[in-house]
């Protein structure tokens, strides 16, 4: 059984109540570093890499089966990290396990009301055939987890002490007013496993250390709900962020240390919130990133320096909350939720299935208003400026880079690739004067990198650079798509707005989520739309949508024609020249008729281009939607492949139009294709991990089945869903004998180096293709019937 994770009490209790003998993974040890090569790729964060080590050690100790549950959601409003969803399948692929060697039931409270069924099936696989016994074991596990959370908060003990069965209150290692109290925030599998195991001891040697599990869950959830849709934050990260807010806002610590693993996706979102709150409260903040290269002495030096700065700083609360008569005494250094007006369910009454609501639902009070002063549609922060626009606390006035008073305010919209063409048509027909950013460039990316968190993915860096450019052009409201779920994309809008305002830009980033189901989301969608386009007539909206969809559809068809033409054209580059002319004509078209005429001309011109009779290798490109559809980010990979000496026919399914057909328009053929993709991915990745991770695996499997020559997998650096897919694609390429090239893209990626890798990959594919052709020719000759009278000659 894999331990050192938050739900360890549930796993242990479940197996014990089933009466199944089990072995737990060992305590963290330095030798875990030797097992990092067990990970099939270099991209997973260090905490996932150590999971491979723990599982390998369990197998080496003679375990027949690994018990590694998949964590999808622990509450009805949020998800867990995508890597926790895909961890069992990553381990299965990385360690090359047989299906019977891995038992991975699913916890999905949010979307699967019958998730306990997978645990019953797990019990059957372990030899327990009694359904009642299995269900009782599941409920017992939930209760054990709730009791463990309550015990850690009440007795002030960290996760390792809980795992040892100790309930003694943590001893104060120091006394005196000059000994600092430090909030040590981070994931349990970082703080207490091999990479961060020494950080707690180092911090505790200077004074008291308060970890996230020492803050009551209901208090942490109450704090995290003060940010818009905070209840939708990933489950573990919500508790870490809420605990940080609780300690900072009540001034219970002299400093706060946030420890994250290298390239951790959720950490890149919550770290900005924690640092911003620490700055607002005037409390020192230290961010530590650990991985297999982190040296103990380096961490010691940084922590010593930080502690010297916080010792005697006097940042803790001036007035300590007092316990009311009849109230249970507070844990050392942590006031109880009651002292802050937060209701507590009490020990033994915690409901694991509950969302942790304090009053009302979805962050609303009983009268339906937001407790944090925000609009129901979620567009506003905690304060508003003089114009009534939402403004985060502590945001300053616009600086020298901000929109100047002489520039007329206009809304802006973020784009990718050629999406600006249909968007311009939509807003023009609606009568909105909307700014679109210039073509993405190194300059815009540099603008985004100046403000972006360290380990945020490349798409947000590019979008943030576009935002700054739009602000300089006079935009005061910027529209972008969003949708809080498994991926970080849903948090981009409010994180970027916070970063821009802290940099002095007076701007609101307006996020657009799906309007469906319309009865639940339609009104909020319309309110957001009015901030950009006002209140246009229904006829104008319908006309604009028709022209925009027509342009989007024709763009997709033209791109597919261009991929075909690039593979066989003579001379090379003729198709690209025709395509650039088509883009200009389509952008200038103001009606559906003009659009179809422009496309007709492009089609006729393409048909007139001379073509070679030489064959081409076929390559499917899969990956994250932004890097697939933004040529600057992927270094124009489709054009590069089409220009290589060895002919390459590129195929790509993930386009904006196809996404709309599946998720918005519900086109039957597109839905059927999505089902095929999921079925193809199922043997390798059972669950959706957010973004397009599942699609990357499924499309690669389909490419192998359709006899394509190779697959190119594109992913942004630190992209959580695609890292899961990348780890599993190693197994796909071994099983199905199809070459798969994974390319990790960031602002540091060079076009020349990327082209070199593509040339080598194309040479590999052509070598395999020629080898297969020769084998097929020899096979056909050996089966050719001999002429009579010539046998044996």
Specify the structural class. alpha/beta
> Could you tell me how far the N terminus lies from the C terminus, measured between alpha carbons in angstroms?
67 Å
Poorly predicted runs of 5 or more residues:
318-333, 337-406
Radius of gyration: 29 Å
- Separate helix tally: 27
Taken from the alpha-carbon principal axes, the silhouette is globular
Average pLDDT reading: 84
Please summarize the sheet with the most strands: 4 strands, parallel
- Overall helicity: 40-55%
Number of DSSP strands? 17
> Looking across the biggest beta sheet, what order are the strands in?
6-5-7-8
Q: Beta fraction of the residues?
A: 5-15%
Can you offer a commentary on this structure?
By secondary structure, the protein is of the alpha/beta class. Helices cover 46% and strands 10% of the residues. It contains 27 helices and 17 strands. The strands form six sheets. A four-stranded parallel β-sheet has the order 6-5-7-8, sandwiched between helices. Strands 15-14-16-17 form a four-stranded parallel β-sheet, with helices on both faces. Helix 4 (116-125) crosses helix 5. The protein is globular, with a radius of gyration of 29 Å. The termini are far apart.
Fill in the keyword field for this structure:
46% helix, 793 residues, single chain, 4-stranded parallel beta sheet, alpha/beta
Q: Nutshell version of this structure?
A:
With 793 residues, the protein is of the alpha/beta class.
Task: Set out the fold topology.
Layout: H1 8-18, H2 46-60, E1 66-67, E2 70-73, H3 82-94, E3 102-103, E4 106-108, H4 116-125, H5 131-155, H6 159-163, E5 181-185, H7 188-191, H8 197-204, E6 208-210, H9 217-224, H10 235-249, E7 255-261, H11 265-281, E8 285-290, H12 296-310, E9 383-384, E10 390-391, E11 410-413, H13 420-429, H14 442-451, H15 458-472, E12 475-481, H16 492-502, E13 508-512, H17 518-533, H18 538-568, H19 574-588, H20 592-607, E14 617-623, H21 625-629, H22 637-643, E15 648-651, H23 656-663, H24 668-681, H25 693-705, E16 710-716, H26 720-736, E17 740-745, H27 751-782
Parallel strand pairs: 1-3, 2-4, 5-6, 5-7, 7-8, 11-12, 12-13, 14-15, 14-16, 16-17
Antiparallel strand pairs: 9-10
